[in-house]
Amino acid sequence: MATLHVRNVPDDLYELLRERAAANDRSIGAETCQLLYERLVAGGGRPRPFAIPGLRRRPVGRPGIFSRFTPEARAAVVVAQTEARTLGHGHLGTEHLLLGVLTLDPTLVQLTADDVRATLTPGDAHPSGRIPFTPEAKQALELALRESLTRGDALITPRHMLLGIAATDSPGGEILRAAEVDLTAASQPRPVGLPDPSFHVILLDGEAADWESQLNAVAALGYELVEIVDRRAIFRR
Description:
By secondary structure, the chain is mainly alpha-helical.
């Protein structure tokens, strides 16, 4: 079977392809072949799925990398990728995530994306494809997940991402602290009087031996539906 390599795919187009592949339960390669088949073979008729030898379907039940993010939060990550590439950086750090968050929601804090860019030194890297996250950026997204669960929110928003970045010892966190940004508005808890979520989500800490007590504590609260979340779940493919 022939192999096709495609370079310089725009980040936003790649993200749309990734989301379509996840929705159709296919790998990105299989989804690309399906789109080419629909356009070049099926033509104007009704497109029909076909089997491609050697390409595996995406495992059922396996969450996408940003399945818990709102469209705005996913867009912030796409912007962060673009910012890192434009700055000539070969990594995606919390400083780039901060640029993405402030670009998508400039009203969160009294700090602009231009203010952040002014603190960053351009590099000379020319990364291709998806730029890897730094450990601090991954930690910030894990903390964003924790913020959303603590507040009873079903999905991660740019606001949660901002709080996650601020809680890290990283370039993005240092920028926020140096600018003396007031996070009071972003840190507001859920308004009093709102009904509890229909189900409860818990984020397991520690090793498996520590989970029993955490599960027992949640069971005692009497929730009928409980979703158990490994803190690394948002990075699993």
